[in-house]
Every structure is written in structure tokens, then in C-alpha cells.
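Aim 2, interim progress. The first record below pairs a target sequence with its C-alpha cells.
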Amino acid sequence: MSNEEKKQNTEGSGSSVHFEEVSGYIYDAQNGELDPRTAEQEESRQHRRQKTSAIFRGSTYLGFGATAFLTFAACLLFYYVLFRTSDLMTGFHRLKAILMPVFVGLIIAYLLSPVLNFIERRFLLPFTEKHRIFREEKRPAVVRSISIIITAALTLFALYLVISMMLRRIIPSISNLLRNFNVYIQNGEVYINKLLQDRPEAGDYVTDLLDRYSKDISAWFNDNISSKSADLLRILSQGFIGFLKRLWNFVIGFIISIYVLGGKERMVARAKKVTFAVFSRGTANDIISAMQYTHKTFIGFISGKIVDSVIIGLLCFIGTTIMQTPYASLVSLFIGITNIIPFFGPYMGAIPSAILIFLVEPAHPLNVVYFLIFILILQQFDGNFLGPKILANSTGLAGFWVIFSITLFGGLFGVFGMVIGVPVFAVFYNGMKKSVRRKLRKKGYPEETDPYIHADHISRDGVLEDLPDEELPVNKPVRKRMRKQKKTPEE
């Protein structure tokens, strides 16, 4: 290509600067100086500029297309959420049914993780390191495998004990209770009639009250317990496929939990890697810190409550068996299950159990008193010694917030909400506390609560000052004026 052709190509490129080759250099006709670039370099530069401009134009069109597609998809999703909610929920439930074994496996692995860590870190790793049983590079994998086998064996053994106890004690107790429920109601009527025989009007009123509500209670038992038992028998006999499906979900979930337990550290590491890749460093650190606190709160509270409730149930069974309390196994199971619910659980378990004992043996009302005294001692032991040793204030909530969270989540999600309400609210409360402390730190104010108890205002220097109410007038404008005068330094 000649110099004049290069010059024409350069001028036809749309650039406002015109170049001409002079002795191997580019002469800038606009600035009147030599440019130390050859004509080939300038042509290459112009070609790259044109290519970049074309790419930007294509990117703009691509961005417009992506925006239009996302807008259409959002409108379609909004339409389905607003007008086709039933179809959306059907698809959601179908997806949930397909992934149910995975969810079950993750839950089982999460609950068994503390058991696995305890066996591995407290027993197997120190033992193998001390005696050098395996090679150092293979030791963690072998120890993890042995720990998983021991954890799975303990879990299956615990399930066997629970099922055998239910088949031998709980189910016969429930059947006997339902079969003799009317007899127990009549025993209660006889006892009340003897107690109120000197007051016939009050006795008749109480008897009518028992007659009225005994029918409702009996109907409730028949509808909710007898029918459920019949449904269970029908599922086991006629609907065996449905039972096998639930059993299949549990079996597959248990197998999945073994794989999750085997590689839980790498799964957590991958989640951290994705978090650091997607978010900025500060945001990723905050997310990981929040998830670590959530895990610590949930696993500490739920696993601690399960262990605590099992111990309380066993102690209750031993005590009620020694006292020869009727339906000792059923009462102990009820006490242990309700003990999982904080604060309200002991009352929810003790009151119905006491009523049941009274109806079974109305001629011996002292048995109810002995039972209530025993439950009171047991709950004091749990609240003051056993619970703090196991839970160790895992939530960090005051008593008011515990009651508040149980009431709120129990009203929203029932019994399940009462169980998980405390750790969920503890995570939310901790997040709010960290946010408030961060803002106070930026403003230079104290972060602890105690300095604000007697504080009346904050000075210009950021110091909390106490101004007693007796030193201020009752009139609000005068109070404001005096505060302003105190804040303004005297000249």
C-alpha cells in the first residue's frame, strides 16, 4: 500500500487528526509535529478503534435485549404469582416432594454433626495420634469414616429403642386410656359428688359441666387420636405403598446424610468460596459471620434441648415408676416432649398429666400432689443446674424476649414455631444489636446499655449526662430552654 493510499485510508476513517508519513514517521498536519509512529502502527490503531466501537455498539444492543427479556420475564412471573398462584404452588409442592430426601438428609446430617464431631475430636483423633495407628496423611479420612460408622450405629440403635418402647408401652397405654376414658370421667364425677354433697347446687352444676365437656373431650379424642390410629393401621395394612414412600425418603435421606457428613468441611469451604466470589470483601465477611452465629445458635439450642429433654424424660420415668404413677411411660414421654418448648413446656406437660392421674385415681388425690411436687423439683433441677450446663446461654436472650419469641412464632407456626422461635429470634436480635452498636461506634457513643439507664441527654462532646427530673421545671418549653442553656458554654 502506497503512502497516499494509507493517507486516504487514514483520512477516511472518520478521525479529526490527519497524518502523513515523512521519512518513516507520521506527520501530524493538525499540530504541525512529527509523531514517532509508523504508518503501519497508526493503521493498526485505527483498525482496533473501529473494532472496539463495533463491539460497544453490539454490547449496547445486547444490553437492550437482555433488559427487555428480563422485564418480560418479571412481568410473566408477576402474572403467575398474582393470577396463577395455585399452579405455582402445585409446581412448588411437586419440586419439594422430589427433593424431600435431600432435605431430610441435610436435616439429619445437621443434627448428627455434633455427635460426629464429639466422637472424632474427643476420642478417635487423640487415640490414633497417640498410638500412631494410621499414616499421618490418611489418618483424617480413616478417622472420619470410623466416626461416621459409629454415629450411624448409635442413631439406628436409638431409633430401635424408641420404636420398641412405643410398641411395648406407649401404644398400649394410649389404647387403654381411650378404652377407659368414660370410666375415668365417671370416677371424677363420683369424687366431685362426694366432695360437694353438702352443696347440692354446686355439685349439680359441676356434674353438668363435666357431662357437657366430657362429650366434647371424648369426641376430640376419637376424632384426633382414634381416627389417626385407624389411619395409621390403614396405612400399614392397606396403604403400604404410602408408608414405604415415607420410609424410602428417610432411608435415602439417611444415606445422603452420610455423604454430607463425610465432606461437610469441603461443602462449607465451597459455600465460602462462592460468597467471596460474588460479594465484596466486607459484605462476604459479614455474611459468613452471620451464618456462623446462626449455626452456633441453632445447633447449640436444638441439640442442647434434645439432650436436655431426653434426660428429663428418663428422670421423670424413673421417678414416676418409683411412685407407681399410672401411665408412667406415657406421662414421661409427654413431659420429655413438651420440655423441648422453652418456658411454657413444663406447664404444658405437667397440667394435662396431673389431670390424667386424677381421673385414673380420683380416690387418691394425694398422688396428684406428689406428682406435681416431683415435677416442680425436676423442673427446678433442669432450670438451675442441668439446662445451664447443657445450653450454656446459647441464645443470649432475656426472659422477656424468650416469652415474646415463643408467643409470636407459636401463633404463626404452631408447636413447631414454639420450638424454633427462640433461636430464630436470637439470630434476628443479634443482627439488630450489631447494627445498632456499629452506628453508635461511628457516632462515638457508648455501645453498652448500662450508661443509658440514667442518661438524660448527650452533650456536644458525645458524653452521656444525667439531668435529674427534680432539677427541671414541669413546663416543657422551659425544660428545653434550660437544656439548651446547659449545652451552650458560658462566655
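The second target in this work package is listed in the same format:
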Amino acid sequence: MFNFDGAAPNVKFYAGVNGNFSDSTAFGIGERIDGRSYSNETIVLQLPEGTFVDDFDSLIV
């Protein structure tokens, strides 16, 4: 379940490799979620076209 108070700016899910979210292997997933609060909700993320779950091993908000 996902919880977020909606208060932080520029919030988005990012995928990366080995915990690295700033090099060319990292990419954003979905739209920004700032401004909306979530309380014990299930989030479904759609990967960008051409990317697969095997392309990353880390996920961050």
C-alpha cells in the first residue's frame, strides 16, 4: 500500500540500476503525483514503451 501526503513538489516514480537514479540507465515512470494525497492506496505504474521490469532493480519516489 502506498501513502503520500501530496505536499512535496516534483514527485515522480523513478527506476534505476544498483540504486543509481541519475545516470543514463535511470528513467521516470508515470506522471508526477505531487499535489494529491494517497492513503493506503494501490498504485499501478505503466513502464515506458520499450522498457521491461528486467531493465531495473531499484525503484524510488
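The chain has one domain: 1-61. This observation will shape the mutagenesis plan for the next reporting period.
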